[in-house]
Amino acid sequence: MQGGGCVVDNVTLQFQEMRPHEIEKKSFEIIEKELGDTKLDPVQEPIIKRVIHTTADFDYVENLCFSKGAVTTMQDAIRSGACIVTDTQMAKAGINKKELAKYGGEVFCFMGDEDVAAAAKKNGSTRAAASMEKAAAMGQKFIFVVGNAPTALIQLYELMQKGRVSPWGIIGVPVGFVNVTEAKELILGVEVPYIVAKGRKGGSNVAAAICNALLYAMAD
Amino acid sequence: MQGGGCVVDNVTLQFQEMRPHEIEKKSFEIIEKELGDTKLDPVQEPIIKRVIHTTADFDYVENLCFSKGAVTTMQDAIRSGACIVTDTQMAKAGINKKELAKYGGEVFCFMGDEDVAAAAKKNGSTRAAASMEKAAAMGQKFIFVVGNAPTALIQLYELMQKGRVSPWGIIGVPVGFVNVTEAKELILGVEVPYIVAKGRKGGSNVAAAICNALLYAMAD
Known about the structure:
The structure is a homodimer. By secondary structure, chain A is of the alpha/beta class. Chain A has eleven helices and eight strands.
């Protein structure tokens, strides 16, 4: 592709000719400019900005909630080789697995597993909830990244209440209209480090963006 | 997971006990209720609603633009076995490939290919743009699904202008701050069937949601 102008319907649209890495830099400059005088916690700032970069939605300035020390605690966990469990293949696809692997971590998503499908069917629950059960049964400490199913977040909460799972942290950003807001409110009450998008909004893209922002801030 | 109530900080949050398929049904009922008297084209309606379901963002009622007959043309292409090329692994992960395979189609994403990385480096372009070049060189008719990179959309436009590619349709929903709005405006000027999210918003989740809505409406 060449930069420059393209003629459409007699209107010439000008494209700035930029190298790929410059596009991201310019995007973050625009986000900063539009944030104006908004005060952000410097540790949370790269995460909030990357979510806006991913969604073009400034609502996340208000929506994103961080427990005290959540960012550094999760980064320390990653540094010590923590793995990630997510409820969506899309988030798994979006997380920078190469960057995570530098510290020894990997990303798991059990949503397509046959045993998870069978357990969900048996219990009349969702595969997302059953996939959290599966992770808990592995007896390993994970960072849980929920980008789709509120039922995963509710299941995680119940497993924590029963002492059956003890996450390094929770990124709780499911999206939707049924039980989503309520499920996130549950997580706002726990002692585990969390990053949660309050309200209905979120998604697998937001989930991956938060993970990547944690990783990129570690590399800076 | 059991339905019912969970006690948090002395507040009991009630969760409606619902089977998985009921959650989606209830979500669409809420969306319909909140849309109120908004008039939607009946062919476009399932696509607009599924994007809102995926994003919890009602802006898409205004943002989504359909060329005349875009939905039925793309559905006919899928029915005849059309394959999809996308610029993001996340969209590939999110598209219902099982449903698409019923008609003989599959989803390609060339973003991770070595020849694409090499071509991008050589030309100083993005891998997304180079991946569109690769698709064009295959000499096959595709539905192009751009959920991330405006450079992919601009490249696609230029390839069409040169007669080097003739898509079945374009789903143009990249997200971001640099050249994104302009790249989408380009596509609004072409003769090829398109579904475009005007403005900055979009993303791989929106891209996958549109593909899946096309597929699910075919199955209904």
